[in-house]
Every structure is written in C-alpha cells, then in structure tokens.
Amino acid sequence: MAVKGTDLVKLMPKRQGCKDCGFPTCFAFAMKLATGGAEVSACVYLSEEVRAQIEELLAPPIRPITIGQGAKALAIGDEEVMYRHEKTFFHQPGIGCLISDTEDAKEQERKIKALKEMQFIWIGRTLKADVAVVQSASGDQGKFSALVKKVVEMGDGIPMVLMADTIDLLLAGLEACGKDKRPLLYAITERNIDEAINKLAGLDVPVAVKADGLEKVSVLTEKLKEAGLQDLVLDPGSRKVWEAVRDQIFIRRAALKQGFKPLGYPTITFPCQMTGDPREELAVAAALLTRYAGIICLSDLREDVLFPLTVLRLNIYTDPRVPMAVEAKVYEINQPTDTSPVLITTNFALTYFSVANEIEGTRVPAYLVIQDTEGLSVLTSWSTGKFSGETAALFIKKTGIEGKTKSRKIVIPGLLARIKGELEDEMPGWEVIVGPREASGISSFLPELAGKC
Predict the structure, then answer these.
(1) Structural domain containing residue 52
(2) Alpha carbons 198 and 209: distance in angstroms, whole number
(3) Whether residue 334 sits in one domain with residue 298
(4) Same domain? 146 vs 192
(5) Number of independent structural domains in the chain
(6) Are 408 and 431 in contact (CB under 8 A)?
(7) CA gyration radius for the chain?
(8) Are 46 and 108 found together in one domain?
(9) Is residue 325 part of a domain?
(10) Which among 36, 101, 192, 339 is least surrounded, fewest beta carbons within 10 Å?
C-alpha cells in the first residue's frame, strides 16, 4: 500500500522556518517524499532510526530485483497493482530454460543455443526467453562449475539462476560465473539458512528462498532481512497447478493490499517440475504468467511452447493506456515502381503488420501509406475522427507519394468504404478503390488490382 504524506509528517523534525531541505515546511517535504519528488537524505535533522523507518515506509511493496548485468539484465518485481487495467504492469516475467549438469554435452549446448538464438518477431517486437536455470543435479562441484562456465562462454551475457542443494555448490557456481554477473542463487531453505547467512552475507547477489508454504517462507525472509540479505526471490514450494496459482495470488495481494513486507518480493516458479507433457507445461506456464510469477522455468525451449507464451506475455505486459503503434510513413514493399498501387491504413501495430505481411506474401510491388492515428485501429480511428477522407488526403500529400507513382490508384480499408467519396473530392485525379474488409483478403485482391495498374 502506498504510504501517505500525512503518515510521514508525523515523523518529521518540525523545525520552524528551517527550509534546509529545499521546501518551505516539513509538511511540504513529507508530501513530496510520499510522491517520490524528494529524497529522505535531504533532511539532515532526521535521526538514523527515523530515517530507516521512513525508508522502510517508502520502499516499494514488491522489492525490485535485477538478475544479470548489462542490456540483457532481467528486472522483476516493483509492481504496483493487482490488475493491469488499474494502471499497468512494469516488469514482465523472465522465461527460463532448465539446463542440468547430468545432461550430455550436446543437449546442454543445444539448450544454450536455443536460449541465445530462438526468437520471434511479432508486431515489431522481438520475443525470446530470458534466463538460463543452471542446475547441479549431480551434486558434483566440478560438473556444475564446468556447466556454469559453458553457459557464460556460450550464452552471450544471458542472466542465470544457479540451482543447487548446498551452499558450497552455489558458491562454486558463483565463482565460476563471477558475482559481477549477478546470478540468482537458488535456494535458501530452513535447512541451510544459518550457513547461507554466514557465507552469502555481503556478496551482493540475489538469492531465492524456498520453503513448504507461505508461512515458512515469511519466517525465512524476515530472518534473512535482519541479516542484511534483502534481494530475495520467493518459491513457496507449491508444485500443483492450482496451489501454485493460489500462492502467487496470495503473495501479490499480501504485498500490495496488506503491505505485508515478508512477502514483498518477486517469485520464481517451476512448471518444468509440475508435468512431463510439453503441452501441459505450456498451460501451467501460461497460468502462472497471468498470475504474477516473476520467473517461469521450462524444461526445454520449443517453438510451439515459447511462441504462444511470449505472445501472451507481450499482451499482458504492455501498457493498456498506450496503443501499440508503428511509425507513420510510406513503406515500400516488394520493391515498388512508379506504376505500383498505393494502399493506406492506420498505424495500429497489429493492423500494419497484418496488412504488410499479406502484401509481401502476394509478391506484388506496392506502397503502403501508414497514417498516424495515435495507434488506433481502423474503425476506432474513423469513429474518433482521426481517419477520414480529409485527414487521409492531407497525410498522403504530406508524404510525397504523388511523386513516386503514376498509377493514381489508392486502396482504402474495406471497413471505411463510406469515406470513398470524401477522399475522391479531396484528391482529384486519383481513383479511390475500396479494398477487402479483412487483411486476409489482400492475397486475392492485390494481384488482380496490380494487373489493372
């Protein structure tokens, strides 16, 4: 729960006429603190105890955690709402692949290569997995360290989760990886927590906490926090689908709605341990993705699993207040000439890629004019006045397309047949043709049109 400025006012030193913080009163300073407009360090009169109390109040309800380094680093946590329509979700969950030191070298290398290279281009976005979950299933320190080094060498900077049963194995993996790469160490349990505190404190790497149930997880996180280990990721140990989903919801609700700090951390989940069927694993992963998982570990990377999962993730982790749009301009498809037809539509990303892909598939050279409609779809942009005969004509003239083609044929979306007359009035000398209502109709429509140009 967001802290209120009035709560912070009670902790202010209330020095009359001070203004050393840059604000006229302690009340004004507290209000700015609550909204993130000031730093608590600006007030030099706060005691260390009060300063720590204020910092605790201002801390995000779900702690932000970064795994890895550089451009490929994975940021999870730091979410503010239960439902994306309330605001938005900020940090999409990482999708990982389990790589075990008991697998043969070829299998290990195949998975590392898939993590590095398997990707999909979808409405202009690159979709791919994010993290290597490196497991010491053998318990052999040499094998584990060798696998970690292999992932470092072949993985091109991909973030890692180091997974082992003992703290010494985790430290061996950390040494092979390098703590500057900030791997996530999995996992601290009831059995090894005292050893973990002694050996991991001060290393400045994130660690995962695993226990059988949320109550036990909370006890462990409190103990670790007191010892100075604060970059935590939670695994409540649930390995049945409905239990796992229930726990994810409970953790999120406890952190955001009740302000329960012991559960105010992102989570890691293991669909790979819940089923042996790839299709069932996809269903489990999708359920956990929609219910707040921070990291989702798969047993393998398959195109028929990774593609739908990453598309689902993209759909959920985009700002619902901002339509997905592409640049408004003229796109030349299949090397058009001065006799090629012209098509026009909106800059809604899904519309653009649907139409552009269909045109490309026909192999017919064409110009595709993408008008700026603030990312709205065809009918929505028409109903709001952003796509009409007048606005289309103005944009077409602005692009200079008239100097590129002699065909003087322009195709408008079939759903907007009603603007045909208006556009003809605005563009004398041009023939306005009503195209298909759906992008799929372009495959038969465009070749026939091209024969008449």
Answers:
(1) 5-58
(2) 16
(3) no
(4) yes
(5) 3
(6) yes
(7) 28
(8) no
(9) no
(10) 36
Are 39 and 148 in the same domain?
no
* CATH number for position 428: 3.40.50.11600
Output the CA angle 277-148-178, nearest 5 degrees.
135
pLDDT in tens, the chain (453 residues): 566 777 777 888 887 778 888 888 888 888 888 777 788 888 888 888 888 778 777 778 899 999 999 999 999 999 989 998 888 888 999 999 999 999 999 999 999 999 999 999 887 789 999 999 999 999 999 999 999 999 999 999 999 999 999 999 999 999 999 889 999 999 999 999 999 999 998 898 999 999 999 999 999 999 999 998 999 999 999 999 999 999 999 999 999 998 899 999 999 999 999 999 999 999 999 999 999 999 999 999 999 999 999 999 998 998 777 778 889 999 999 999 988 999 999 999 889 999 999 999 999 999 999 999 999 999 999 999 999 999 999 999 999 988 888 888 899 999 999 999 999 999 998 999 999 999 999 999 998 887 665
CATH number of the domain residue 37 falls in: 1.10.15.40
SS (H, E, C) 312-331: HHHHHCCCCCCCCECCCCEE
In this structure, the answer to whether residues 111 and 235 fall within a common structural domain is yes
Amino acid, res. 151 = V
Q: Count how many residues are written for the chain.
A: 453
